[in-house]
Design brief:
By secondary structure, the protein is an alpha+beta fold. It is built from nine helices and 15 strands. Strand 14 and strand 15 form a beta hairpin. The longest helix is centred in the N-terminal third of the chain and has 14 residues. The protein is globular, with a radius of gyration of 19 Å. The protein binds 3-[O-phosphonopyridoxyl]--amino-benzoic acid.
Length: 284
């Protein structure tokens, strides 16, 4: 049965518990990563660990082990669960403490690692492309809670997701506080125009996606220029192609945004090419 890692020990699912006084639960005070494993190897583990430590530093959370020890813990958990192709959730909370906000009242950060099989988007969405809407919920203001921090505060994303679902869409696009395109609730967004890629820059207030970075590099290797530049909803509507990137989704085409059909209304050639290149690279 599934073995969950908590602070150096493994627990069966039903015994994997943390305190109700944990500030991760009480205040969303903590950070996390979502990773994939392919053929038993965790995909871009170093980048995810680096981002985890950056997120932790950003919230002044001192992690109780080194990046190498954290990487080893992830690999041990994947091994203990005999995961070949699966998903890893790595969570670090501030730990349990008094009922007040004060993080200094929390003693021991909780390092939780869950390795499980992956539930992907249905295959038809990859074949036919997704329809998404632009949510009225804007992405967190960077000066309020920077979207660069992958924190346990996902209500911003969840509120946008709820709006998307109420419009019959499983993903929703969020604009930033300037009204520019930011990202979706769990993925980064790319446009294709005139054979070139366009994606919002990190200072648009987005998560620096690992998949986003891989796709930018894969595109460059295959002679497709990628521009990291601020985009508007208009740029999305008039794009030749649109696709999303994320550890869970990998590369998934988008064929309709706010009822505007993108390009031909079918996944475009560059989106399909990058989806294939990513799949081959991830499994190489
Ligand atoms: C807001 C946001 N933006 C972009 C991404 C893509 O980043 P990566 O390319 O590094 O994965 C994410 C990542 N989001 C993510 C990643 C993995 C699983 C799940 C899940 O919904 O369980 C969500 C995310 O949460």
């Amino acid at each position: 049965s599934r073995q969950v890692y908590i602070n150096g020990s493994f627990f069966a699912k039903e015994d994997a518990k943390i305190s109700v006084f944990d500030h991760g639960l009480l205040y969303g005070d903590g950070v996390f990563e979502g990773l994939r494993s392919y053929g038993g190897k965790v995909f871009h583990l170093a980048e995810h660990i680096d981002r985890l430590y950056e997120s932790a530093k950003a919230i002044c959370l001192e992690l109780p082990m080194s990046p190498d020890e954290m990487s080893d813990a992830v690999n041990q958990t994947v091994k203990a669960n005999k995961i070949t192709d699966g998903y890893v959730r790595l969570v670090v909370t501030r730990g349990s403490g008094a009922l007040g906000l004060d993080p200094n009242q929390c003693s021991v950060p909780q390092v939780i690692i869950i390795a499980d099989s992956i539930t992907l988007y249905p295959q038809e969405y990859y074949e036919n492309g997704l329809e998404i809407i632009t949510s009225s919920v804007i992405r967190n203001h960077p000066a309020a809670l920077s979207p660069r921090i992958k924190s346990l505060n996902y209500l911003n994303n969840i509120l946008a997701k709820i709006e998307g679902l109420s419009a019959g869409c499983i993903e929703a696009l969020m604009l930033n506080h300037k009204g520019e395109v930011a990202e979706c609730t769990g993925d980064n967004i790319f446009l294709v125009k005139g054979g070139e890629l366009y994606t919002p820059p990190l200072d648009a207030g987005i998560l620096a996606g690992v998949t986003r970075n891989v796709v930018i590099n894969l595109a460059k290797e295959h002679g497709v220029t990628a521009h990291e530049t601020s985009l508007t909803k208009h740029d999305v509507y008039v794009a030749d192609e649109c696709f999303l990137t994320g550890s869970a989704a990998e590369v998934i085409p988008v064929v309709k945004v706010d009822t505007r059909v993108i390009g031909t209304g079918k996944p475009g050639p560059i989106s399909k090419k990058l989806k294939q290149l990513f799949a081959e690279y991830a499994r190489s």
